[in-house]
Each structure stands twice: as C-alpha cells, then as structure tokens.
Design brief:
This protein is mostly beta strands. The protein has one domain (22-188): Beta Barrel (Lipocalin). The chain has two helices and eleven strands; from the N terminus they run H-E-E-E-E-E-E-H-E-E-E-E-E. It has an eight-stranded antiparallel β-barrel with strand order 1-4-5-7-8-9-10-11. The longest helix is centred in the first third of the chain and has 18 residues, at 2-19. The two termini are 37 Å apart.
Length: 189
C-alpha cells in the first residue's frame, strides 16, 4: 500500500509540470504561404507569394512562450506572370541560385492571455539577417474538421525595407517598403 501511495504522490506532483510542457507543431506546407506586396512605379501594388515552406512551431501557453523556425524556398516565388517571376528570381532581386532559402527564426513570442499576439525574430534574406517583428492578426487552435488532428493556424504580418537586405534594384520606382503576410497552419506532433 505504501508503494502505491508513493507512486500516486509522484504522479500528482508531476501533473503540474506536464501541464506546462510546450506543444510542438509541424508546418503544413500545403496550407502555409508567405505573401508580399510592393508598390510598382507608384501606380499599383504588385502581389506575390512563395508556394513552398517548411518549419516547426512550439507553444507553451501556460509559460507564455514559444518559438518559430520557418524556411521558405525562394524559387517557389510566383506573381502569376512567368517573365516577371524569372526576373524576381534573378540576382537583381531574390537571387535564388545563390540564396535558395529565406528563413525566419523567433527569439520571443508575446501573449495576451492565452493567445500569441506578436513574434520578435530574425529574417534572413539574401544572406542578410535583420530583426523583424510579426504582428499576429488571427490565431486559432482546434481539431481539423475533416481529419480530426489537432491544428493551429495563424495569419501574421510585417513590413520591411528590401534595401535593408541589399535588394536595391529598381529603387525608387519599385518600392522599398514590402508588406509581408504569412498564412500558417501547423499540426501538433
């Protein structure tokens, strides 16, 4: 009986620690996209996106912490016009031959209650790493309605200056300010 009480006591003591464990998620590359928009000659806004990304997310809501590690394949860039896409993939812009990926790695996640609202991290583009803050516009976790697996999704946005990363071709006609939007879905491991 004493042995059972000791085991039960150890289980009860360990429960609070288990409740504070971080959950890890793997990004669903079929439902995760990085979008960007930039002024074109001051007349219109050109839109584009990257179709291939991968990465991992951890969340610890009890401790109000988390991490994000995302890799985007630069060559997966598309704007809907192949000639423009080829130019954007060239050394004038994304230089995908020399820099095949863009990465974002967080170093802090800010919560409001149980919900993450912003992420501080580093964006690496063209081999240059700069701090970039993402504002989380929407966030939701739950079971996927079709496959019943636990899933979290978020939309986040940031604004950068492309010249900060060495992308200066076409300035000022092609805008320096780039609005970025990330749509992310990730399944719990």
């Amino acid at each position: 009986m004493l042995k059972q009480n000791i085991i039960a006591g150890l289980l009860l003591v360990s429960l609070p620690f288990a409740a504070h464990a971080a959950d890890s998620y793997t990004i669903d590359s079929q439902h995760t996209f990085a979008h960007f928009s930039v002024s074109h000659l001051g007349f219109s806004t050109m839109q584009g996106r990257f179709d291939k990304s991968s990465g991992n997310i951890t969340l610890n809501r009890a401790a109000k912490s988390g991490s994000i590690d995302v890799t985007i394949e630069a060559a997966s860039l598309t704007t809907g016009y192949e000639k423009r896409d080829a130019h954007l993939r060239s050394p004038d812009f994304f230089n995908v031959a020399e820099f095949p990926t863009l990465t974002y790695k967080s170093n802090a996640v800010t919560f409001k209650g149980d919900t993450p609202v912003s992420v501080e991290g580093n964006l690496t583009l063209l081999g240059v790493t700069k701090p970039v803050k993402l504002t989380i516009l929407s966030f939701k976790c739950g079971n996927h309605p079709m496959n019943k697996k636990e899933l979290c999704g978020a939309d986040a946005a940031a604004q950068i200056k492309r010249s900060d990363f060495g992308m200066k071709f076409g300035l000022p006609n092609v805008g320096d300010d780039i609005k970025m939007v990330f749509e992310v879905e990730a399944y719990k491991n």
